[in-house]
Design a protein that fits this description.
This protein is an alpha/beta fold. It is built from 13 helices and ten strands. The chain has two domains: 153 residues, Rossmann fold (3-Layer(aba) Sandwich); 115 residues, Rossmann fold, CATH 3.40.50.1860. The strands form two sheets. Strands 4-3-1-2-9-10 form a six-stranded parallel sheet, sandwiched between helices. Helix 1 packs across helix 11. The radius of gyration is 18 Å and the shape is globular. The two termini are 21 Å apart. The structure holds D-glutamic acid.
């Protein structure tokens, strides 16, 4: 990418945002993108409100400095804990207040109300996202008839970040969390994967739901709703859309170990050939 490019910035605490980025790029391959994963400081899910805000804000400011006029927080924890503050307080006082930051929670909630028949949904997410009650509040505004039962699954992200997707430990934990969720509300027919890392273990979650005699439950990952909401946003905001450069370029940055990021990102993105990444310090 050259110095004139204006890419879309995609940020996550680690690898999870790749599950969103994959869908965004699939839908809109024409734009330039920068993906930034804060793998060196992941997971965020058990961090304090202040830490999640500070880390997310640092990443957003870095993506702005790299030329992105628009940044997507492809992370529920960051969307729940930092998005509003950045939108309301940081952006207006920044060097260019016309830049924008969008999150993943609203597009997910808008979509889930069309999927459930029973009106009972489950949410699996990090502790930070569950305790923020962001989903409950967003649902209360847009679909108050929906009953949501939330379950924090704090061990899933560290195991996914370590790349041990077939670890027995992960299987046992997924089984115990889903079984507790369904004991709390057996009428759940749709589960929001409310952490962008979780689509990376979709087949394991499906296998466990089969074992628990709930094969009918629909899993709702966020890649598609977020990418369609972004396309819609760009359609409604031509002043932003025309600022974006279109050379179909992608750059990857990580605060973690570059070779480990390159290996796992390639797997998570489903690429045939290896991607290359650059180190970044926030
Ligand atoms: N992938 C992130 C989310 O959607 C954060 C996971 C973490 O860092 O704990 O919540």
């Amino acid at each position: 990418m050259n110095s004139q490019s204006s890419p879309i910035g995609i940020f996550d605490s680690g690898f999870g945002g790749l599950s969103i980025f994959r869908e965004i790029r699939h839908l809109m391959p024409q734009y330039d993108y920068i993906f930034l994963g804060d793998n060196g400081r992941a997971p965020y899910g058990d961090r304090s409100f202040q830490e999640v805000f500070d880390f997310t804000n640092q990443a957003v400011m870095r993506l702005f400095d790299m030329g992105c006029p628009l940044v997507i927080l492809a992370c529920n924890t960051a969307s729940a804990k930092a998005l509003r503050n950045i939108q309301q307080n940081e952006l207006p006082s920044s060097a260019d207040p016309t830049r924008r930051v969008l999150g993943v929670i609203r597009p997910t909630v808008e979509r889930v109300s069309n999927l459930t028949y029973s009106g009972h949904i489950g949410l699996v997410a990090t502790r930070a996202t569950v305790s923020s009650q962001s989903y409950d509040m967003e649902l209360a505004k847009t679909a108050p008839h929906i009953h949501v039962t939330s379950r924090a699954c704090p061990r899933w992200v560290p195991l996914i970040e370590s790349g041990r997707l077939d670890a027995e430990e992960l299987y046992l934990d997924v089984r115990s969390e889903l079984s507790a969720l369904l004991d709390t509300d057996p009428d759940i027919d749709t589960i929001i994967l409310g952490c962008t890392h979780y689509p990376l273990i979709t087949s394991l979650i499906q296998k466990v739901l089969q074992e628990l005699d709930h094969p009918e439950i629909i899993l709702m990952p966020q890649g598609k709703p977020v990418s369609y909401a972004l396309r819609d946003y760009l359609y409604r905001h031509p002043e932003m859309e025309t600022r974006l450069s279109r050379q179909a370029g992608v750059s990857y940055y990580t605060t973690g170990e570059v070779p480990a990021f390159e290996n796992l990102a390639t797997i998570f993105l489903g690429h045939d050939s290896k991607i290359s990444a650059l180190p970044v310090i926030l």
